[in-house]
Write a structure and sequence with these properties.
Layout lengths: L21 H18 L3 H11 L3 H9 L6 H10 L1 H10 L3 H28 L1
Helix pairs in contact: 1-5, 2-3, 4-5
Length: 124
């Protein structure tokens, strides 16, 4: 058995980490679905996610396809910019209670913005 000219895995994809566990596939799929809900499925969406994270567009494209999931800094950057990614992450971490807290914070900000707008209208 010989190694392929490119890549670090055996041709059968199982040795040296080539196989994906069910958890890896679920994680990548959840993040892909969250990215698509948040940004859509266009090439511009891939560019946006790449810009948010500083990752290569090919890497971001793999996230959207669910082939691979983001790791470390990239996941943090995606969660910082996308509520859908944050919610997916919290849900997978078993912290659905924090999702309600995030939504409540957004509602508070929206109410504050609405009150400011009302005050501006009344002042006229």
């Amino acid at each position: 058995m010989s190694f392929p000219k490119k890549g670090k895995f055996f041709p059968d994809g199982e040795a040296n980490g080539g196989g994906s566990s069910l958890k890896d596939v679920r994680f990548a799929g959840e993040i892909a679905a969250a990215l698509k809900r948040s940004l859509g499925s266009t090439h511009a969406s891939v560019k946006t996610a790449a810009a948010w994270t500083g990752a290569n567009e090919r890497t971001a494209k793999n996230w959207f396809s669910g082939r691979y999931g983001p790791s470390g800094e990239h996941l943090v950057a995606l969660a910082r910019n996308s509520d859908d990614v944050l919610h997916a992450f919290l849900s997978m971490a078993g912290r659905a209670d924090l999702i309600a807290s995030v939504k409540l914070t957004h509602a508070e900000h929206a109410i504050e913005d609405l009150l400011v707008a009302i005050k501006i209208i009344k002042a006229k």
